[in-house]
Amino acid sequence: MIEVSKDGGLLTLTLNRPEKANALTAAMLADLEAALAGPPPAALILTGVGKVFSAGADLEEMQAGLGRNPAWERVSAAIAAMPCPTIAALNGTLAGGAMGLALACDMRLAVTGAKFFYPVMRLGFLPQPSDPARLAALIGPARAKMILLAGARIEAEEAQAWGLIERICAPEALMTNAQALMVDALAAKAGHIAAIKALIG
Prior knowledge:
Layout: E1 2-7, E2 10-15, H1 26-36, E3 43-48, E4 52-54, H2 59-62, H3 71-80, E5 86-90, E6 93-95, H4 99-103, E7 107-111, E8 115-117, H5 120-123, H6 131-139, H7 141-148, E9 154-155, H8 156-162, E10 167-169, H9 174-180, H10 183-187, H11 190-200
Parallel strand pairs: 2-3, 3-5, 4-6, 5-7, 6-8, 7-10
Antiparallel strand pairs: 1-2, 8-9
Helix pairs in contact: 1-3, 6-7
């Protein structure tokens, strides 16, 4: 359910469970963790199959404690620590705990019509520990509270205006845009990329 594709220095990880809106299971988190544990690529793209990037955690597994699985934090921490550029190429709506994967990336592109929400207040769960701070760093504390406390559903245009995503693309142009942003990194030395990321913080 996680497709791993390597093309030179570009690593692409694809959520492929469209019949369940790419809802994440413990097995999928384990697969993501394993894929991120190897030698760091020159660039990383995270995307999905279908019209939804991810509906968040699989609700059946949430009843068995998936929301408290430390793998969520390990996966997002691994993405955030990558010494290469990372892009979430969001092929559709992003919801719930899956938002942590995108928040950990350096850049986020989304297709027209994508929506963004994190319904922890309504469902009675806590967000993953690192997600609120990463969200607030991108869009500010008040807007982070709109999403986490008020349950706001944000359209793509508003998400871009807030700084949650950097670019809106037509669905057929999403991966082309993501790959184009990686061209310079794929031609650079790994140490150079890591040094620039460290300067940005």
